[in-house]
Amino acid sequence: MTMKELAQMAGVSTAAVSRYLNGGSLSPEKREQIRAVIEETGYQPDAVAQMLRTRSTDHVGLIVPKLDSDAVTQVTSGATAVLAKEGYLCLFADAQNTPEKELAYLTLFQNRMVAGIIMMATVLTPKHEDMLRTVNVPMVITGQRFRQVPCIYHDDMGAATELTRLVLRKGRQKPVFIGVTEQDVAVGLNRRRGVQAAMQEFGLDPASLPRETSSFEVSGGKAAMERLLQDHPDCDAVICATDRIAFGAMEALKQAGRRIPEDVSVVGMDDNWACEHVSPTLTTAHFYYRASGETAARLLVDMMRKKQQPGPVQQTMLGYTIRERHSI
Fold it and tell me: Would the CA dihedral through 316, 322, 327, 328 be positive or negative?
């Protein structure tokens, strides 16, 4: 059924039906006539056409780096729970850890007129900076700090510093670090800086820190640890930028005959669910990913409904908790 047909059945103009559907002013008599026909026929307005007329939508775009990640699952779970309560539907975009795909999805969501966007960011390229300056819908970033966009991020450097202190207090003197690309400022650069800050506190030369770069996968952590063992076979502590990397490092150490924690301490970051199921259980930093998704969604809802007053761009850093287990 078209709007014109509905109007004919109700004995009103199509303009009156449009005002009814969009919450406009209408006489009680006409409102009742239209309501009765809608109830009788089960008429549903064309959502796409209505969106184009009103330029409003109840959809929110969520751009994530990859779907097979415990952190992504927690962020999206927190965000979707809040958005669902507020009446918003979510459209997911898996960027597959590819900056170009992030930008493509960001363009797509803006062109399709979503009400807002939450992006779980990884890297910040010049193209990202240009696009974020001109984004035309409310947007919140999680996981990274971008100065021109409201952000919910984590104390990555603080967590890495505290974990390294914990290891060095055990008497370890020859730590090594397995990180990720430092284009990822939060996980790559800030976590490496945290390790070096703790080394300096304990009188070790931060510049001498042996380190390797890994992918975000277990296999990458294993390969990086094997390379470190070739050049630094006497290392007695391994600080890993993520838990998955740490799982791979533990596998390589065991295959090399190194005992954990008797010969070498191992720590990760993120508090992956598997940390309590590997042997030995992994010491790590718990980040509040679900809370970051919830906080980002609440902020976005306020922005979409224009409750947020003009002022400084909101930047919120969440804390962490160290989970000390048996790997140190």
Answer: positive
Chain segment 249-276, per-residue pLDDT in tens: 999 999 999 999 999 999 999 999 999 9
Residue pair 175/237 in contact (Cβ under 8 Å)? The answer is: yes
Q: 251 Cβ partners below 8 Å, 6+ apart?
A: 218, 221, 222, 225
Contact assessment for residue 240 and residue 178, using Cβ atoms and an 8 Å cutoff: yes
Distance CA 141, CA 75 (A): 11
For strand 139-142 and strand 237-240, is the pairing parallel, antiparallel, or unpaired?
unpaired
Which residue matches tokens 């650069």?
Answer: 189
Q: How do residues 183-231 score in pLDDT, each as one tens digit?
A: 999 999 999 999 999 999 999 999 999 999 999 999 999 999 999 999 9
Nearest alpha carbon to residue 154 among 328, 321, 5: 321
Q: Where does residue 273 rank: exposed (0-12), middle (13-18), buried (19+ CB within 10 A)?
A: exposed
CA 282: distance to chain centroid? 23
End-to-end CA distance of the chain: 68
Whether the model pTM is above 0.90: no
3-state percent helix, strand, coil for the chain, nearest multiple of 5:
50, 15, 35
Q: Per this entry, what is the length of the chain?
A: 328
Q: Tell me whether strands 211-213 and 237-240 are parallel, antiparallel or unpaired.
A: unpaired
Cβ count within 10 A of residue 45: 17
Measure the CA–CA gap between 37 and 102, rounded to whole angstroms: 45
b/e code 228-237 from CB counts within 10 Å (16+ = b): bbeeeeebbb
